[in-house]
Write a structure and sequence with these properties.
Aminopeptidase; alpha+beta; 2 domains; globular; about 240 residues; 10-stranded mixed β-sheet; 8 helices; binds coenzyme A
Length: about 240
């Protein structure tokens, strides 16, 4: 087991944040019982801890609960082979989609700060909504600063940004992966096809990509339906636990 600082999140929280990483086997459960309380007390009393545990491993969740952790979310990863990604069809309504430039970033940051309801931060009753919103704003701000991700795509209507899709490119097991890091639509423009247009646009570029991937929350029915309707299917899931 490792307890590693999350400096980016700590900067937004304004206090120390640590991620607890368990090994692949149950052999490290004992250390969790002893190491975690030692880590927390007395120096890290005000710290925020989080961890993600595969949903087929319930024993660590029990141990974590005994240390004060609580489940805030089940994160679902969905993927789609690029060869079977939905071929875009004309939608009734089309939106201009392009890589973000200039003031697009500020508009996307503003949407990020107002559209989320099901992130692990929004679902945690111990985290104020204002802080949960700020985390999403800072997430997208890091795209404008080029400190995270590879591209921020925006959907526009009448020149105004109405949605965004943040992309990370990665590689695993010899597969080139394009990941939807975050997607959000202005609450005033939701359910009008913006999210669908963004994901269709995204999966339309299959060049240098073997797999599309996205993570979402089990409570986020809208996004699950959106991804499934475009050919994505669930591959893995994780309990997400917090300790404040
Ligand atoms: C998820 C989200 C991006 C969808 O964007 P959207 O523009 O509202 O969605 P669309 O109008 O393109 O709808 C596409 C499909 O999504 C599903 N969907 C969208 N909103 C839904 C809702 N409120 N309830 C159930 N399904 C919904 C439907 O399957 C829909 O297809 P349909 O219209 O043929 O039924 C948007 O709701 C959003 O920004 N949510 C907050 C941010 C978020 O949770 N992001 C995803 C997690 S990382």
């Amino acid at each position: 087991m490792q307890i590693v600082p999350d400096n980016w999140l700590a900067g937004v929280f304004g206090r120390k944040v640590f991620r607890v990483i368990l090994e692949d086997t149950d052999g490290d459960l004992k250390p969790l019982d002893t190491v975690f309380p030692d880590h927390r007390a007395p120096g890290e009393n005000g710290a925020f801890y989080y961890t993600k545990i595969p949903t087929d491993r319930v024993a660590p969740v029990q141990t974590l609960a005994s240390c004060g952790f609580y489940v805030v979310d089940v994160n679902v990863t969905l993927s789609c082979e690029s060869s079977s990604a939905a071929t875009p069809l004309k939608t009734a309504r089309s939106f201009e989609i392009r890589a973000a430039i200039g003031t697009d970033f500020d508009q996307a940051i503003s949407i990020a700060g107002s559209c989320f309801r099901f992130s692990r931060f929004h679902l945690d009753p111990a985290i104020p909504v204002s802080l949960a919103n700020r985390i999403k704003e800072e997430w997208i701000r890091s795209y404008s600063r080029k400190t995270r991700g590879d591209e921020l795509w925006v959907a526009l209507q009448d020149g105004k940004v109405v949605g965004f899709l943040a992309e990370i490119r990665s590689a695993q097991n010899n597969k080139r992966i394009r990941i939807i890091d975050l997607i959000g639509v202005d609450p005033h423009f939701q359910k009008r096809g913006v999210g669908r247009s963004l994901v269709k646009f995204f999966v339309n570029d299959k060049s240098q990509c073997d797999l599309f991937q996205v993570g979402t929350q089990i409570a986020n029915v809208a996004s699950l339906r959106l991804y499934e309707s475009l050919g994505f299917s669930a591959t893995t899931s994780q309990y997400v636990l917090h300790n404040t």
